[in-house]
């Protein structure tokens, strides 16, 4: 992944204030990157092949849905199982968040559980430490120390999400093996 693509991911996600917004933007980024990978794998210059492939991949074609595209890429061996599963986790979380009216904080148990299941998150020890800190908090909710800790936790978990998206995008930025 080139530095400009990496910067694009950070620029897209960094200023989004809500977990729902970050997850939605991440799925949009994955959709774009999967589309680019599909282009590299399936777009051919031969007119007959191009016309068939274009109709399959078009916005109303059977391969227009991100989940279907992921399954095709996984089935062809173009996409690693871990990257496939991680994107599916993002898709599932997006659906869940869109079906709920509640806004979750980045430091919510939902975010921690989500990050713990991702393959793209390598260092889970920090997540486990944060989870213990968040569950072990018996301090006054109005204390300045607790507010500072909460802001720190939010930033760390947001960073984990951004790094996860970046890692998945790197796995999608491959040349066609076909």
Automatic annotation (TrEMBL):
It comes from Chelonobacter oris. One of its GO terms (biological process) is negative regulation of DNA-templated transcription. InterPro entries: MtlR-like (IPR007761), MtlR-like_sf (IPR038026). Transmembrane segments: none annotated. It comes from the Bacteria. SUPFAM superfamilies: MtlR-like (SSF158668). This is Mannitol repressor protein.
């Amino acid at each position: 992944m080139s530095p400009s693509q990496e910067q694009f991911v950070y620029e897209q996600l960094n200023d989004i204030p809500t977990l729902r917004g970050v997850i939605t933007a991440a799925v949009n980024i994955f959709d774009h990157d999967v589309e680019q990978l599909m282009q590299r794998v399936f777009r051919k210059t031969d007119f007959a092949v191009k016309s068939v492939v274009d109709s399959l991949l078009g916005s109303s074609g059977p391969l227009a849905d991100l989940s279907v595209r992921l399954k095709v890429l996984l089935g062809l061996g173009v996409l690693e199982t871990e990257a496939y599963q991680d994107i599916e986790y993002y898709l599932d979380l997006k659906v869940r968040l869109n079906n709920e009216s509640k806004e979750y904080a980045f430091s919510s148990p939902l975010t921690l559980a989500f990050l713990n299941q991702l393959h793209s998150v390598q260092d889970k020890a920090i997540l486990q430490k944060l989870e213990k800190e968040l569950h072990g908090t018996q301090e006054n909710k109005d204390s300045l120390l607790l507010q500072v800790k909460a802001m720190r936790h939010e930033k760390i978990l947001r960073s984990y999400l951004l790094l996860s998206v970046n890692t998945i995008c790197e796995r999608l930025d491959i040349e066609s093996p076909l």
